[in-house]
Amino acid sequence: QLQLVESGGGLAQPGGSLRLSCVASGFNLDYYAIGWFRQAPGKEREGVSCISSFDVKETYSDSVRGRFTISMDTAKNTVYLQMNSLNPEDTAVYFCAAGPGVVPSRGLETDEYDYWGQGTQVTVSS
Questions:
Q1: What pLDDT is recorded for position 104?
Q2: Phi/psi at 76 (5° precision)
Q3: Rounded CA separation 124/48 (Å)
Q4: Residue 28 to residues 47, 54, 84, 117: CA-CA distances in angstroms?
Q5: Strand boundaries in the chain, DSSP class E
Q6: Which residue, of 32, 55, 86, 101, has the greatest Cβ tally within 10 A?
């Protein structure tokens, strides 16, 4: 059974850092693209970053580029999202998602992904 489990969320102060993890089970990350998305209260889910091992491509939204870094450890079947210089606008539930046929130019689109985790809450506040 294919499953994604996020962890690492919590409370951070503005300017602080958090690292999110997405552990995949039931499938091999070598054949999937993994995306990180977030959803704030009252807002639509938005793509933050994505990565795939087969084309070694990382993509970031404009709002996080230069602050967030996505990485993949295929030996651990885990994808990470290192989040630095956090600000209150980063507060949201963060989800990871997997898709076997993600079009690289559409890596931040929710409809490219077939499998989703349950999410982890990130709150940035002083």
A1: 82
A2: -100, 0
A3: 16
A4: 22, 12, 28, 16
A5: 3-7, 10-12, 18-25, 33-39, 46-52, 57-60, 68-73, 78-83, 92-99, 115-116, 120-124
A6: 32
Q: Tell me how far apart the alpha carbons of residues 8 and 15 are, in angstroms, rounded to a whole number.
A: 17
118 CB-near residues (< 8 Å, 6+ apart):
5, 6, 95
Along the chain (126 residues), what's the average pLDDT of each consecutive run of 10 residues?
Answer: 95 98 92 95 96 83 97 93 98 96 89 96 97
pLDDT at residue 57, rounded to an integer: 81
Using DSSP bridges, classify how beta strands 57-60 and 78-83 pair: parallel, antiparallel or unpaired.
unpaired
Model pLDDT, residue 31: 86
Query: What per-residue confidence (pLDDT) applies to 70?
Result: 96
